[in-house]
Amino acid sequence: MLKKLTIFAVAAAFIAAPLPSFAQAKKDSVVMAMALEPPGLDPTNAAAAAIAEVTLYNIYETLTKINEDGSVSPLLAESWQASPDLKTYTFKLRKGVKFQNGEAFDSAAVKFSYDRNAAATSTNKDKSLYQSFESVTAPDADTIVIALKYSEPNLPFLLGQASGSIVEPKSAPTNVTQPVGTGPYQLGGWVKGSSITLNKWADYRNASAIKLSKVTIRFISDPAAQIAALLSGDVDAFPRVATRSVAQLKADPRFTVLVGGSKAKTIVAINERKKPLDDVRVRRAILAAIDRKAMIDGAADGFGTPIGSFYTPGSLGFVDTTGINPYDPEKAKQLLKEAGVTNLELSLKLPPPPYARAGGEILAAQLAKVGITAKIENVEWAQWLSQVFAGTGPHNFDLTIVSHVEPFDLVKITESDYYLGYNNEAFNTLYKQIMSTPDEAGRAKLLGDAQKMLATDAVAGFLYQPQWPTVINKKLKGVWKEVPQFENDFSAWSWE
User: Of all helices (H) and strands (E), which one includes residue 15?
Assistant: First the structure.
């Protein structure tokens, strides 16, 4: 009898066993990896691009949405109109939208968010943009009117960046760790140093269109570990993966490798608050010591285009300024001699990304050839943000290498507390002129003048415009190739 029961039990087990994959449910979760962990989850109070990579269009939304091709479409705003002089914009807001804590989204939340960004105590990375608003008014619950001090044709694009995220007023003080937005995902959990989990928000206004119910984001900074995680299948997608892994992963049929353009600028930042770096001859000497091609080949595995200013090819009014400070080691030595500088020792603080660490080794070797000793100090991302970049200082560095990923950020150079410490009234006046010129041809010419001024003044060691490789499981769809800004719009991702 026992033997018969056992046979029946085994048969039942086979009958109950799942059929082959064609009968299984479609996969609805994904594991993505990033090189850097965000320092917090409020993109309106800190500059780290990693915050936007997790939160933008996922947890938080903005009035407008920046698309893969750089175009702008409605998001929390249904439509907008600009005055002929591009100094007044009227936005009609989407109705019936809720925040994840149940509060209603309306013009009061938009006004609160923008006024908060402009406040004297604000640490928003685009604070200067919001301070350029003459007024933000809410004539009714579904309308917001922005009046600007200067014309700004790029305002719809700029408001689609993470710094323009609309926050719920009561949740604002705790958004760093408990983010509340209007987006399709909510924070599921955050294991510091390891991963963040996002869960689909069931009450999202368009929840039926969201295909992924769960996204796990892992933080892997080491290039070798990045490759290992992909090859083992632990990670389904790795946007902006270390460039040195690309050749190996391209050869693997399990993956698709997307190589996209960017508006990013990889630079050697120079702290002009410190002597002798306040002397333009010393800065020009540093630039003359840099072989951009060697830097692109060695630090970015060839994924870059040389630049000579804080501006990228393809942008309005771009001019090639690489010839203003070309690679010329003998000229570098001559400039140092003219400045009366000998045996110059400089700190070189490097954040974790591979392009920065590898680039730092190359830079130190290049500077050594002209008599400058660069003392490398590798720091973690949080240290770099607080010691080097922080708006309030202390700007405790001589040199560093970093990619600035925001488009249209020439305005940063005009900010008195910006970490480069350039502070040139002539440039500030020129920038105001650019902002006051609504016609495109006139603006393009002035933008060219601005690029030439930054190159001539050797404001930084302008290196290259990076290309960003993204590696994904070939069955994963909706991942962007182009990178107009750092974001991962999980609402568009799905499995084949």
Answer: helix 2-16
Provide the pLDDT for residue 20.
41
Q: How far apart are CA 53 and CA 71, in angstroms?
A: 19
Distance CA 145, CA 90 (A): 4
What are the boundaries of each domain within the chain?
A: 60-174, 183-261+468-495, 265-466
| pLDDT (0 to 100) of residue 397 | 95
Exposed, middle or buried, 172 (CB in 10 Å: 0-12/13-18/19+)?
Answer: middle
Which pair of tokens denotes residue 419?
A: 């970490």
The residues, ordered by sequence, that sit 6+ positions from 339 with a Cβ below 8 Å of its Cβ are 276, 279, 281, 282, 285
What totals of helices (H) and strands (E) does the chain contain, helices first? 14, 21
- Does the structure show a pLDDT above 50 at 14? no
Cα–Cα distance measured from residue 242 to residue 474, given in angstroms and rounded to the nearest whole number: 19
CA 477 to CA 469: how far, in whole Å?
16
Distance between CA 407 and CA 265 in Å, rounded?
A: 9
pLDDT (tens digit per residue) in 152-189 = 888 999 999 999 999 999 999 999 999 999 999 999 99
Contact between residue 162 and residue 407 where contact means Cβ atoms under 8 Å apart: no
What is the CATH number assigned to the segment(s) 60-174? 3.90.76.10
Instruction: Give the C-alpha distances (Å, rounded to integers) separating 391 from 120, 406, 466.
Output: 12, 16, 25
* pTM greater than the 0.70 cutoff: yes
Phi first, then psi, for residue 282 (nearest 5°) are -70, -40
CATH no. for 265-466: 3.10.105.10
Strand order across the 265-270 sheet: 304-306, 460-466, 265-270, 399-404, 344-350, 372-378
Residues 195-212: pLDDT tens digits? 999 999 999 999 999 999
CB 172 within 8 A of CB 179: no
To which residue do tokens 């939340």 refer? 109
Span 68-95, pLDDT tens digits: 988 899 999 999 999 988 899 999 999 9
Whole-number Å distance between alpha carbons of 430 and 447: 9
Task: Look up residue 275 and give its two tokens.
Answer: 């002597």
Task: Name the class of domain 183-261+468-495.
Answer: alpha beta
Q: CA of 257: how far to CAs of 236, 245, 250, 252, 303, in Å? A: 12, 10, 6, 10, 13
Q: Give me the DSSP letters along 127-167.
A: HHHHHTEEEEEEEETTEEEEEESS--TTHHHHTTSGGG---
Rg, the chain, Cα only? 25
According to DSSP H, which parts of 194-237 are helical?
Answer: 223-231
Digit-coded pLDDT (tens) for 337-394: 999 999 999 999 999 998 999 999 999 999 999 999 999 999 999 899 889 998 666 7
Helix axes 440-456, 425-435, angle to 10 degrees: 160
Strand partners, 391: none
Q: What percent of the chain has pLDDT over 70?
A: 94
